[in-house]
Amino acid sequence: MKDITSPVLIKLKGILFLLVGLLAAALLLIEQPSLKVAVLLGIAVWCFCRFYYFAFYVIERYVDSTYRFSGLWSFFAYLVRRRKHESRAARAGSNASTDGRADKHDKTDSRNP
Q: Around 81, how many Cα atoms within 13 Å sit in the side-chain half-sphere?
């Protein structure tokens, strides 16, 4: 599928996501109108938003600067590839999972020449 490049279509897509989400939430609250359901729905939505933020921003900025987010499938594929890479490095007994970067615990002690 081709990427959307039109600013108008991108904004329309965002508005449609918002409307569908609001409709789904409204239908759930109509089906089970209680404070408990409303609070749990709010928590679920907030947690999914935080996970999405984690998947594209936190990983790219703070964990692996070589990773470029292109969707949740891309993120899950990244996790699988990284896990395979780390397990191979562990079996080989190397510290390849850090990509050659020094860990804060790898510093040499200046007291021991």
A: 8
